[in-house]
Amino acid sequence: MASKMARLELDFAPARRNAPLGWVLLAAGLVLATLAGVQFRAAHAERLAHAGELSALSGKLLPANAEAAGQAVDPRAAKAAAAVARDLRVPWSEMLTALEAVQARDVALLGVEPSPTRHNIRITAEAKTPDAMLNYVDALRGEAFPEVHLASHQVQAQTPGEPVRFVVQARWKAL
To answer: With a threshold of 0.85, does the pTM exceed it?
Structure first.
């Protein structure tokens, strides 16, 4: 029983033929890439031209600014600018964080007026009782507010519950 089997051809890498459609697509891609390059060069040249015009216009304006810079500065304006710069250098967030850290259940803050030049802060508040007011003043004393004193207080007799409105002066230091 000798039977002959038909030969099986297995070709895993057949020879490829380059189709004309592939060559057409390659040519179209090259043409489009060339057009994009030409448009890029034109846009780049236009940008450089605009940059040159801007430089020329800046050069024309510079002498006018130089004359204005040579004029005397108003001393009041310089003092005001220095005060603003000094106020901006104050570590406000640290001071406010230290103020917020004070535990006061029966005290409501009505106003906070810092004086950055003297590192003082004036706090206006209202407490339910005189004891709550004194506890708040004691709670303020600490690392952030080493000097705290009660400046004034007044019982609000016309307000229900008769709360105590008070003012605290405290010296604060940057942490």
So the answer is: no
